[in-house]
């Protein structure tokens, strides 16, 4: 009798920022089950339904497995060689004729979860040499990156709550029970939050919806969308007004304290209360509690970034952490120390070059460059508008901006005007349907994994590596290989370049630049490795816990990580100031000039009337942005893309539960299904984003059966936070009426 032997594999989940360790069982080359990996030092067995759905993703017949080239308006499957030959025939002539800036790169969210893309698209971007770089960062966290860069000197020096020791957690505009955390890698937030409360701690949530996180908190405060800047100014004002400011150990490391005191003088709680919808007594009470609790942290996320005051709000959150003595203290808001790839662990500790923005500007709107990028909401106009440097060719990497960015219809039309569009993606969807060539990534189960970004944002310090669960099918390239091949084409080396040799050369250049006289020794130490593994080993060994290429044998390296399937725990977060700082002054810049100046906007806005009805977004456990709606295990169950309204609004507007309604904004309109709930703040409607799979031309069989409504089809692509370029996705005025 034949018996099938089951094998077990471990892999860190690449779907969301929680980075859970998964345990997969495999028999006959198929996944038989996916569970949380109890032995994972970091996630300790936690998993959500999207982790389980990796099986469906791996098996999805719609997932692309061969390159596609558009011929006479239709996609045909071609060999990899043909696909690259097509690109080599069409892309270099555009560059030659119209210059580097006639090309654009647009980078989507899954890039950050894919080590091959993370390590190799910077090489692609360099070879491209264009100023037209766009990404999901300007639909998401750019405001926080900017405020952190200004305050602490680097774009990824972002403090996170030390939740295991915290006794008071104030959360604004985040719903980690559902999202599983963001700019804060914290698997099983719910369990950790419960433990916090069980030891007598408190959680306060500020959100226009009584979210799943708010429902488990001690206190929930409804806030008017976009009102956070007023609440936070009121809180900071109270700290000065009631003499509650305590810098503690940081006193010697803070610049600009007096400037902040002056800047907030006009924002007493009594003045801001009406504008944010939270009364003055509650604001003062919150400030007092924050100041009086020894171990406390303030955390804000998406809802605080996707609004026109995103950078101010992101800044004020950390101003609160500093002024109450909670920054960089155990139980407060602390800085992770990642084992590899963190800019705040390299170079001279304690000071640095800081950051700059506006080194160039977008051609049409004049929007400033931020962290090397232009706002993604500028992309359509850069394609549409004629003149020098008009965008004529586009490379998209793991992004679906036609659904995920405001006014996707305009972008879709613009994409069709391109001379060439190349997409790295795993689906033929609303965005990639406009491409001329699609280069399919492998299944995540066929790629190895090491998180570059998330150990820099983790609730504990950690290092984990995942080997591929399955070998790649014959001929399928790993994504780093296809990105490198395109890089070679851009370097003029043609479609058949030796990318192994190119990889060796690029790594050798990096090492010689960074390691100086030790370069040859370092290169010898990693000579047995290639591709991403070599870069990971280099970064780990040279990093803060590394074996220094043999000089510190007890340190970590890739081989040790590979031998530890549950990962290596590097301990609780530890204080890092002033060592972490990379500001020119070597201080925490509490009052950056750009931000003080921007306070004129909320000052002018204080007296402005608030709209009757505004729209906000909503995340759901069984959905992930725009790209997991084709997976059976997630797609089943009740219809989720509903528009939530408060009963008062439903009565006022004649809306009935389960009935269709039209939502309009300017000349844009969508149709939705109404759900009535007291969860909502009156005057606010909530709709999930990432839906709207009813555009013809995509290959998403299951998703098309229940397409949902596209929130972004309603939103205005000219609305941005002027400092960070981040899109305004929240608090947008709308009208809503029943469809009869
Ligand atoms: N209204 C509104 N809009 C929003 C938001 C909101 O809250 N409200 N949230 C915003 C946020 S935070 C984000 S991050 C963006 C996300 O927006 P995008 O960055 O556009 O991400 P997705 O919409 O998830 O699309 C991901 C794409 O990557 C592809 N993909 C998945 N895995 C891989 C892979 O391994 N390799 C390759 N090459 N491709 C892959 C998918 O097929 C899909 O085409 O949406 C933003 N849009
Ligand atoms: N299940 C699931 N998980 C995900 C994702 C997903 O799509 N689905 N996406 C992933 C991505 S890309 C990201 S960036 C993260 C985001 O992670 P989170 O930041 O936790 O995202 P949201 O759940 O959108 O939470 C934003 C909250 O802000 C509230 N809000 C809206 N406007 C305002 C406002 O003006 N002020 C305040 N104070 N609150 C406001 C909303 O009601 C919502 O509860 O989630 C990640 N995890
Ligand atoms: S919370 Fe879910 S989607 Fe996020 S990493 Fe964990 S298993 Fe994956
Ligand atoms: Mo995001």
UniProtKB/TrEMBL annotation:
PROSITE patterns named in the record: 4FE4S_MOW_BIS_MGD (PS51669)
SMART domains xrefs: Molybdop_Fe4S4
Entry keyword set: Iron, Iron-sulfur, Metal-binding
Superkingdom classification of source: Bacteria
InterPro entries assigned to the protein according to its UniProt record, in alphabetical order: Asp_de-COase-like_dom_sf, MoPterin_dinucl-bd_dom, Mopterin_OxRdtase, Mopterin_OxRdtase_4Fe-4S_dom, Prok_Mopterin_Oxidored
Family: Belongs to the prokaryotic molybdopterin-containing oxidoreductase family.
Name the UniProt record assigns to this protein: Molybdopterin oxidoreductase family protein
